[in-house]
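Sequence design from tokenized structure. All designs in this work follow the same two-part layout: the structure record, then the generated sequence. An example of the structure record is given first.
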């Protein structure tokens, strides 16, 4: 990896940066400089090269195709599966003075005709198209009548059959190359593994594309994984104590849980909305739109929600069920803090999650190889949950990237203790061994722990388990501590959930070494007190504004809300918080000074400059 955090796997000549790109970046987007490898990517595509870009969410992928589309003659055709977001994308570009439009199934005949005509007449800088639309005869004929600057294939991981975002239409996109061999193609995704990258290149026939793999680190996101106890209470505490009034996403595994949780949060006075594939299209669209347009809405959702959501000020992503893979988890948490300001990724997980997911894998359709793949993905996720070292280091290691401990995750901030759990593990494994001998009996974690702790429950009495040699040998640990031991044994593959025994616990090949004392087992110690979810917010990334600037910032937000409402667009389409903060600090009194603020391009200066200066002047009076 090179020192700017990017690996460039291409072989073409190092390019000379194009002055037109820098000019457009400043004039249209109001940004001073490219980030990371944006410059190299933009130059490469402007010169007609193909590119495959892997950048984390919030890394700045859009500029990589938007700028070349504006530099190269013709229209940039953007292929995106996210029909529901195309309107917002086009609105945001229009606010910047870019000529953009989309073609998808939500349009009526007249709108379609207008867009087609504008494209053929060369009046569009960017055209967004859904993949299924692109593959139609009509669309291909249309495209051959105009001039195409480039093809951008967004969310390119949708071509991968293994991911949960697979879209069969994406497979058809390899034809772009055959039909338009001289038009550069740029494929973009936030999915980071090498396997996916190779698969994308292959399936989209991006044979000569340069690969750009960015650092996937998102330093402003604080990772926090807690033991699940009373998850609703824990979630509520997080929302109230750390994120009052903030916009965020709460991910759940099932539709029912989404609805229950949203209802619960609403009853607690939190502005929460549900989102899952079982809701009608109209409800989904409406909830999504409220989340994007209004401040401080909490979306409770299954993973059906979130791809392509480019709301920059999502302050937290909370998972109240264990995600199925690190890859999915990282994408979901990446939706927090796209604006670079501090954000939280919070996950609560418990024994039940492990048992449930193992069972789901065992019961899933598909061959052994498929199940093994799911199992390995889950193991990696469990490893992340149980690690005593830096979470971020662990996450990035999964994507083949190495960093030093981050200082912004729970383990870095409050290093957990580890303890020698060998004896405890031996006790638990022997108890399970004894119980396994009693054929045909079903029991769960609760009963096992009761036996270890020597509790005289009706169940213990009924089965005569009080006479087992292991009865009462584990009184030295609390019930919670035993659950933690059990979870870690499961996570490490020292125990399994036996399918034939219908969810009963069973030993594995690895258990023997522990039982025989051939292996020492270090375990993570959970805090005994109820888990405190809060750690002080990092001040380094979002220093408090001085009081005067804070007043200006609030006033500008109010002003922005009014404009956004009258234009029918999300507030961040007008200006990001980060831009308003900078204005509040700089207190410009001329249009020229205002133009220097990052995020203020020429069109926005024209549209809103006077109004902002007036807003500031009024406050100064
Ligand atoms: P992605 O599509 O990779 O998730 P975006 O393209 O939405 O990310 O960019 C994330 C945020 O970063 C956006 O708010 C964008 O305006 C901002 N951004 C991107 N590139 C730059 C840059 N060179 N300078 C300043 N801000 C940038
Ligand atoms: Zn860390």
């Amino acid at each position: 990896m090179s020192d700017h955090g990017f690996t460039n796997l291409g072989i073409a000549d190092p390019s000379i940066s194009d002055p037109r790109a820098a000019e457009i970046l400043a004039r249209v987007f109001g940004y001073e400089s490219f980030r990371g490898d944006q410059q190299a990517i933009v130059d490469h595509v402007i010169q007609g090269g193909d590119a495959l870009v892997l950048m984390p969410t919030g890394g700045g992928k859009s500029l990589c195709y938007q700028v070349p589309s504006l530099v190269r003659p013709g229209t940039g055709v953007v292929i995106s599966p996210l029909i529901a977001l195309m309107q917002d994308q086009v609105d945001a570009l229009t606010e910047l003075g870019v000529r953009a439009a989309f073609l998808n199934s939500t349009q009526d005949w007249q709108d379609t005709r207008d867009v087609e005509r504008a494209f053929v007449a060369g009046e569009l800088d960017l055209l967004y198209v859904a993949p299924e639309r692109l593959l139609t005869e009509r669309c291909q004929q249309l495209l051959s009548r105009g001039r195409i600057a480039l093809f951008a294939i967004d969310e390119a991981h949708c071509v991968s059959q293994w991911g949960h975002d697979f879209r069969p239409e994406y497979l058809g996109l390899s034809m772009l190359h055959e039909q338009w061999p001289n038009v550069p193609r740029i494929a973009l995704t936030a999915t980071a593994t090498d396997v996916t990258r190779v698969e994308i290149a292959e399936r989209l026939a991006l044979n000569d594309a340069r690969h750009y793999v960015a650092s996937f680190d998102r330093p402003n996101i604080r990772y926090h994984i807690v033991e699940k106890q009373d998850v609703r209470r824990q979630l509520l505490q997080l929302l109230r104590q750390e994120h009052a009034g903030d916009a965020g996403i709460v991910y759940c595994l099932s539709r029912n849980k989404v609805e229950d949780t949203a209802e619960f949060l609403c009853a607690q006075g939190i502005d929460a909305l549900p989102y899952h594939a079982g809701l009608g299209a109209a409800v989904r669209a409406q909830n999504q739109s409220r989340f994007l347009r209004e401040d401080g809405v909490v979306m409770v959702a299954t993973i059906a929600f979130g791809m392509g959501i480019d709301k920059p000020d999502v302050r937290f992503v909370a998972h109240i069920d264990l995600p199925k893979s690190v890859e999915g988890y990282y994408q979901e948490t990446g939706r927090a803090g796209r604006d670079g300001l501090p954000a939280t990724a919070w996950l609560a997980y418990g024994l039940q999650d492990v048992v449930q997911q193992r069972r789901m894998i065992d019961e899933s359709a598909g061959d052994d190889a498929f199940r093994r793949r799911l199992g390995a993905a889950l193991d990696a996720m469990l490893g992340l949950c149980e690690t005593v070292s830096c979470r971020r280091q662990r996450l990035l290691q999964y994507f083949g990237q190495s960093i030093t401990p981050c200082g912004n995750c729970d383990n870095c901030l409050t290093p957990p203790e580890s303890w020698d759990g060998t004896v405890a593990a031996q006790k638990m494994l022997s108890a399970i061994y004894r119980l396994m001998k009693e054929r045909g009996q079903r029991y769960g974690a609760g009963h096992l722990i009761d036996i270890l702790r020597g509790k005289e429950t009706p169940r213990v009495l009924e089965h005569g388990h009080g006479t087992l040699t292991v009865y009462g040998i584990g009184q030295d640990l609390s019930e919670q501590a035993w659950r933690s031991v059990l979870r870690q044994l499961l996570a490490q593959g020292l125990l399994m959930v036996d399918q034939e025994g219908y969810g009963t616990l069973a030993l594995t090949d690895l258990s023997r070494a522990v039982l025989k004392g051939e292996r020492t087992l270090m375990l993570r110690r959970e805090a005994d007190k109820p888990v405190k979810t809060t750690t002080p917010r990092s001040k380094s990334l979002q220093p408090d504004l001085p009081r005067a600037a804070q007043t200006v910032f609030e006033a500008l937000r109010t002003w922005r809300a009014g404009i956004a409402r009258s234009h029918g667009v999300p507030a961040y389409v007008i200006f990001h918080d980060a831009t308003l903060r900078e204005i509040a600090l700089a207190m410009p009194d001329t249009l020229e000074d205002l133009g220097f603020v990052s995020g203020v391009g020429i069109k926005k200066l024209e549209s809103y400059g006077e109004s902002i200066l007036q807003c500031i002047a009024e406050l100064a009076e």
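The radius of gyration is 27 Å. We note this feature because it recurs in several other targets discussed in the main text.
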